[in-house]
Amino acid sequence: MLYRNNPKNGDELSILGFGCMRLPVKEDGSIDKERATKQVRHAIDRGVNYVDTAWPYHMEQSEPFLGRALADGYRGMVKLATKLPSWMVKSREDMDFFLNSQLEKLNTDHIDYYLIHALVGDLWDHLERLGIADFLDEAKADGRIINAGFSFHGAGEDFKRIVDAYDWDFCQIQYNFLDEKNQAGTEGLEYASLKGLGVIIMEPLRGGMLASHTPPAVKEIWDEAPTKRTAAEWALRWVWNRPEVTVALSGMNDEKHIEENLAVADSAQPNSLTEAELQLAKRAERKYRELMKAGCTGCRYCMPCPEGVNIPLCFELYNNLHMSGNADEAKFLYAASLGGVLSTGEIAFASQCVQCGKCLEKCPQHLEIPKLLESVVDELEGPDLEMRVAMAKEAFKRT
Fold first, then answer.
1. pLDDT, tens digit, for every residue of 28-63?
2. Structural domain tally of the chain?
3. Are residues 54 and 179 in the same domain?
4. Distance in angstroms (rounded) separating the CA atoms of residues 399 and 190
5. Does residue 301 sit within a domain?
6. Digit-coded pLDDT (tens) for 118-146
7. Residue 249 lies in a domain
């Protein structure tokens, strides 16, 4: 495992962090605690020393799970990160309530890396008025938190002023080869580094999209390289190539993926990609943009939908349709996945959307979700949807 220093405090952090937003789950949607615990502990045994969670992850069950998973000496082996659910804060007292509750859930007396979650400009202004700076100062002084930071999902122009508004120890931004100009982007990465902050990267694989279902046209581009790598390795190495990056979080939930990520994290040095390899990544980025229709990362902040729509899965299947070009397969998988065949029986089609707009308030990518769902309906549903659901039930022996 390679490590990089947080320039603000000198902490030596593993370049690969374990993100606990997409842990393995059982059929009923609950965390598969036994499997997930083995995964987290194995990663730590292999050198991962930064573990990240948050209040809302897994319907508020990620933090208590992690508190148990880090028992038996594992808590002392890692820097633990979690986040103040900023959108739920209505008063200065709320800040202490959430932090104290998180300390209890995580079975710890301090949070090593505490973030203000999912900031955008207006939300930061609101928290400033409520006394967020005073809260962070007090929590650091009394030892409940060691380092103060924030995660960001807003416009680039707001990022710099938030960086300048408090004496932060670190920040967390979305960054991958598709997001150089999105949200904080490369400009924000460089600005935070210039200010001496550790920079934690979320979505280096864009919710797994850059690692799975690689379109043939993109695979052809990667295959041109003399050094053969998987799509996941290309995406991770692209992020770690930036010396400003301290840690890249991966929401690892499959043993094979964990092993691959650990192997890449053993050798991904900064400035190690050649100019020719960077140009390949640029070409891959352009090809993805030609094919993608929805910029969803699968973060699930929009969930649960009050009408039962599985919004992230709708967009995943919609993007897969356009990246694979196989309409028959895409429509069959849509019917099976959202028609209750490959799930616990819940129907979750895009056509159930009533355009209530609640998802718009929550989406960190600021996607026009209801409009995109209309496109999903147009391309993946249609009059033969019920027939495809019936075919899927027969194929998977579900009645």
1. 889 999 999 999 999 999 999 999 999 999 989 999
2. 2
3. yes
4. 55
5. no
6. 898 889 999 999 999 999 999 999 999 99
7. yes
Phi-psi region of 72 (alpha: psi -120 to 50; beta: other; left: phi over 0): left
Q: pTM of this prediction?
A: 0.83
Residues in the chain: 399
Same domain, 317 and 264: no
Full DSSP string of 122-165: HHHHHHHHHTHHHHHHHHHHTTSEEEEEEEE-S-HHHHHHHHHH
Q: 82 with 102: CB under 8 angstroms?
A: yes
Q: Where in the sequence is the domain holding 333, given as residue range(s)? A: 311-395
Percent of the chain with pLDDT over 90: 76
Domain annotation covers residue 305: no
Q: Confirm whether 290 is domain-assigned.
A: no
Q: Are residues 380 and 270 in the same domain?
A: no
Q: Are 14 and 247 spatial neighbours (Cβ–Cβ below 8 Å)?
A: yes
Environment class of 382 (CB within 10 Å of its CB; exposed 0-12, middle 13-18, buried 19+): exposed
The DSSP code for 13 is E
The secondary structure element, H or E, covering residue 113 is: strand 111-119
Strand runs (DSSP E) across 33-101, as ranges?
A: 50-52, 79-84
The CA distance from 393 to 399, in Å, is: 6
